[in-house]
Amino acid sequence: MDALTAAGPSPLIALVGNPNCGKTALFNRLTGSRQKVANYAGVTVERKEGSLLTPSGRRVRILDLPGAYSLDALTPDEQVTADVLLGRRAGESQPDFIVCVTDATNLRQNLRLTLSLKRLGLPMVVALNMSDIARRKGIVIDASRLAAELGVPVVTTVGVKSSGVRPLIEVLDRVAAAPSSVAVDTASPVAWRSPTAAELEEDQAQVRRILSAVGADRIDAATRSDRVDAILLHPVIGPALLAVILFLVFQAVFAWAQIPMDAIKAGVDALGGWLATVVPASSFRDLLIDGVLAGTGSVLVFLPQIVILFFFILVLEDSGYLPRAAFLLDRIMGSVGLSGRAFIPLLSSFACAIPGIMATRSIQNPRDRLATIMIAPLMTCSARLPVYALIISAFIPRRPVWGGLQLQGVVLFALYVLGVASAMAVAYVLKRSGGGTRFQTLMLELPNYHWPNLRTLCIGLWQRVEIFLTRVGTIILALMVILWALSSFPAPPPGATGPAIQYSIAGHLGAALAVIFRPIGFNWQISIALVPGLAAREVAVGALGTVYALSATGADVSSALAPLISHSWSLPTALSLLAWYVFAPQCLSTLATVRRETNSWRYPIIMAAYQFGLAYVGSWLTFRIATALLA
Amino acid sequence: MHRIDQILVGLVVLASALYAFRALAPRTYRTRFLGVLAAWVERTPDSLPLRALARRLVSSAATSTGGGCGGCANCGSDAKTAGSPKAAGSPEPLPREVGVRLSAIGRRRSGPLSGP
Fold it and tell me: Do A34 and B82 touch (CB under 8 A)?
């Protein structure tokens, strides 16, 4: 307890436990944070810190650590946990107190880690989390007996309910007030070392004995999740259902978003009209209307589609279906040399490649991890959705096909499939070039299914909206203002006949870039938009909005961008741009994350080079083939 | 009126350029640039109340903006801890990043690890 006393008034408390036992849900409840929670293992791959003011007014610092099966780390995320607990993490002191979070429905697996943690000799409490689910499943655990067996206090918790964490808060209050009130019945701590096979067997025997003592040694026959899995994991029905689910998601993105998109468009137009009347004609008014409003408005319009896409992703995450999808796709992933474990990082990349790349820390094999990092940016991130949606709405007719399906939704689905297929092809090449594609066995924990938690869903959706609006209001806005300035200055010479933008810095830059991009069908306006699009994908849409606003004479260009480009571009050009965005490198932040995760500039440079190469070749082929077919 | 218009536009463009640089430039360059800027501001006469700005520039150089990616703070790339009414800033500086050398990933350590 000396460490705790020395730590001063804010003891550091670590939440530790197996993956997917509800640590982050508890952390969010205790600290009021909104860290991502989902129903699969490996959501948290980094330490997170928050603080809690206990009922007696004392502050404790709380650490949420990545899930671990053992302190003998096999993956980078487990290494983070082991390093923090063993006090080996640079610049961070060892925790003063451990909350060992256990899944009450799966004590058999969770107790092994509990025994390991106890050996560290740190003060500890065991939180029997998900106790409501355990009760519903008829699992009754004698908590006081468990406390006696383990020699540490045990509290029952429900991380997703505010009332469910009260017992734990009471313990933490006592820890903050009088540390000696929570003691561990253990011998003096010993230097930690990897357990031998005999020690592991001994631990397992002890777990069996404890389970028997607390009445939790019953092994269920088929559960409801097992019965659902009989259908969803069926070798034929399972993959077919997965394809149908994903297909319907992309249909919904187009079918449900129209009304709110029209409303946002109308709002942007109304604001533009109002600004034109109240602000006197000046450069500042041009900046507001042609730069800020045309740029950000044309991106903002796609918010409903992003919300709908994330609604489905969050429902799939929270229900427990995602690891099943990984299981179903293991064979396909294995055929290109990846393990099914790569599926979840790749799926995270549909939201944003950065958390996807971070999530590869749960992959044990370094070569698999590197291959997954290198292909993650080929997954279609949400920032690409506005670009796809703009071009699809401009060039693909809104008509039903195949008995009521939306053609636009089918094309969007095809683009996502193209991204996945190209990622698989690149993975195959990477693994082949690096010494073969040995099939890896997949070991994956399948959580129980449950209905998505409404609070988690709402928080998740709100976070996506917040992130999107933050991007629109900060980096996209800033880039649009810069682009407007580059597109407006210097002013055209006296007697100039073309649009002013042609004589500006951006106009000259676009003309220079057009030489490179002309073979793939891009005009100078597209060439300009590609440059800020490197900072963040959706900026390209805003950039097109600004560039066309300055090229046109109309007032409400932001809403008219789709019809405008449908008249200005040929179909081969539009298809070529879609191909470009399937393959081209994502934002600079992604490359920076790859550099950090691989500790080397080599891989982000290789990634950028192969993606630019693929994008150029893919666009060139698309443009040439489409031109030949339409001739 | 025309001059005010030009100054206003100039300020907005300058602020946008600084924000974009702060959000997108690599941390090394960002820190160096903001450090130089802070030193320059520090040299201004005492009559100008710019010392506080200099201090803000220095602290701003050390923090990540999260502007480029939106900053959901789920990936651990952001220095900030979970923001919330209950959460408070940590009393000591925390490491921002985990750098695990690729060759070391997935390998068991051969010897015993140092314990508490």
Answer: yes
**Residue B105 placed within a domain:** no
Report the candidate in A550, A544, A516, A542 with the shortest Cα–Cα distance to residue A528: A544
Question: pLDDT per residue over B47-71, tens digit each?
Answer: 777 777 777 777 766 655 444 554 5
| Residue bearing tokens 């474990």 | A341
Q: Can you tell me the distance from the alpha carbon of A155 to that of A101, in angstroms, rounded to the nearest whole number?
A: 10
Q: List the single residue in A192, A283, A365 with the smallest CB-CB distance to B106.
A: A365
Of the partner residues A36, A92, A475, the one whose CB lies closest to the CB of residue B94: A92
Pick the CATH number of A2-214 from 3.40.50.1000, 3.40.50.300, 1.25.40.10, 3.30.70.920: 3.40.50.300
Q: Measured between CA atoms, how close is A313 to chain B, in angstroms?
A: 16
Please tell me the predicted confidence (pLDDT) of residue A618: 95
pTM above 0.80, yes or no: no
- Look at residue A129 and give its three-state secondary structure: strand
Please determine, for residue B88, whether its predicted confidence score (pLDDT) is greater than 50: no
Which residues 382-411 on chain A approach chain B with CB closer than 8 angstroms? none
Interface residue of A46, A93, A456 to substitute, partner B, most B CBs within 10 Å? A46
Backbone angles phi, psi at A61, to 5 degrees: -90, 135
Is A481 close to B13, i.e. CB distance below 8 A? yes
- Give dist(CA A193, CA A205) in Å, integer: 20
d(CA A256, CA A305): 8
Closest CA to A312 of A92, A461, A444: A461
Contact assessment for residue A523 and residue A568, using Cβ atoms and an 8 Å cutoff: yes
Complex ipTM, two decimals? 0.71
pLDDT tens for each residue of A283-304: 899 899 988 988 888 888 889 9
